[in-house]
Amino acid sequence: EEQLAESGGGLVQPGRSLRLSCAASGFTFGDYAMHWVRQAPGKGLEWVSGLSWNSDNIGYADSVKGRFTISRDNAKNSLYLQMNSLRAEDTALYYCARDISGWWKDAFDIWGQGTMVNVSS
Amino acid sequence: QSVLTQPPSASGTPGQRVTISCSGSSSNIGSNYVYWYQQLPGTAPKLLIYRSDQRPSGVPDRFSGSKSGTSASLAISGLRSEDEAEYYCAAWDDSLKVFGTGTKVTVL
Lengths: 121, 108
Fold this sequence. Notes:
The complex is a heterodimer.
Chain A: E1 3-7, E2 10-12, E3 18-25, E4 34-39, E5 45-51, E6 58-60, E7 68-73, E8 78-83, E9 92-99, E10 108-111, E11 115-119
Parallel strand pairs in A: 2-11
Antiparallel strand pairs in A: 1-3, 3-8, 4-5, 4-9, 5-6, 7-8, 9-10, 9-11
Chain B: E1 9-12, E2 18-23, E3 34-39, E4 46-49, E5 63-68, E6 71-76, E7 85-93, E8 96-99, E9 103-107
């Protein structure tokens, strides 16, 4: 079964850092672009970042540009999100999602269950 | 901040047809595909429609998508109780993926 499992969330103080991970299984991870999408409590979906299968193409939402870094390790079937200078408004459930394409600008067909990040003092 | 506008709610009785609109601009819907995602309460989103009018395998043909100009629509025919969920449209806007504001569908 094709699955994604996020980890690394938790409670963190404003200004601190956190690294999220997403483990893929049941498919050839290196064939697909991957993304992070977040959802603040009671709010809608917000795309955070995405990268192509070979990491050549990377994009960020304006709200996280310069603070967050997306990366992947195809040998480990894993996607990462390094989050620095965290703010209260970054509090959300963070999902990783698979793109149906290798080139990162298509539909998201597989989603994890999410990992919660709570930024608070 | 969402740049795709959806009505906050829609409703219908079982068996009815419900349509959800999604309004964008020339930089997103007007020049790119539209996607629709369904989010049941407490669960991760699920892909419902991709490339404006394509259904992934396993999605019932009760769900259909269309696009015209800078707007798009999702139609649910033969409404069922399990369709009660939040629905989001989405599109690429240059190198950013933008989601709609979301529409809560209630089955009366």
